[in-house]
Every structure is written in C-alpha cells, then in structure tokens.
Design a protein that fits this description.
Elements (H helix, E strand, L loop, with lengths): L1 H33 L8 H7 L4 H6 L2 H21 L7 H29 L11
Helix pairs in contact: 1-5, 2-4
C-alpha cells in the first residue's frame, strides 16, 4: 500500500510540475509575441498596456496578473543584461529545467519505493521483492 502512495504522489507532483512548465512556456510565447522590436525604452509601461490572454483573466485578478508580468519582464531584462544570448534560449530553458525537475521527482519516487520495501509494518505481510 505504501508503494502505491509513493507512485500516486509522484504522479500528482509530476502533473503539477508539468502544468507549471506548460503555463510558463505559454506565458513566454505570449510575452514574446507582444515585445516591441524597436527597443527596450519604456518597456515596463508598455507591458502594463498589453491585453491579457482570455484564459489568464478567467483564473486570476487582472491587476495581479499585470504586476506579475511586470516583475517577469524586469527579471528577463536583468537576466538578458547578464547573459545577452540567453533570451533566444528561454523556451528551451524552461523545458530543460522541467526535465531536470521531473528526473529528480522520479529519483525520489524510486528511492521512496525502495525504502518502503525495506519497511515491514506490524501486521502486514512482507511482499515479495
């Protein structure tokens, strides 16, 4: 029974992690579609004027979403200032981080599976290995 709980927990966390990565990729695509090509001046003010995606407005407060986007744009500007070539790799970077996180979750689930196999609870017959 404990092994089932480990794998159910892994599946739920993997689903949450994957949804977060997909949401980040969608927001990145949407943001890059609205970035001005003429330069970075007054970018924060321009971000405040962007129309929000309909799916985002359904689930969040529009003002909170705008503040989040302003923070993300500021972070991307800072990060691009540090590593100028990184902006072209942002989408791939999201999925690389997703893969590393999912790998760590899988390792934790395998370790949990192994450790629960070592446990022998009173009154429970030990399962075959």
């Amino acid at each position: 029974m404990a092994r089932k709980i480990v794998w159910i927990l892994f599946a739920l966390l993997a689903l949450l992690w994957s949804g977060t990565a997909a949401l980040a990729a969608q927001l990145l695509d949407w943001g890059l579609a609205h970035l001005p090509l003429d330069g970075q001046e007054n970018l924060i003010e321009q971000v405040r004027q962007w129309p929000l995606p309909e799916w985002l407005v359904l689930f969040t407060d529009p003002e909170a979403a705008r503040q989040l986007l302003v923070g993300l744009v500021s972070f991307v500007q800072w990060l691009t200032g540090l590593l100028p070539g990184l902006s072209a790799w942002m989408g791939a970077l999201i999925w690389i981080i997703w893969g590393l996180g999912l790998g760590l979750l899988l390792i934790a689930a395998i370790l949990g599976h192994w450790l629960t196999g070592l446990l022998q609870l009173p009154g429970c017959p030990r399962q075959g290995t």
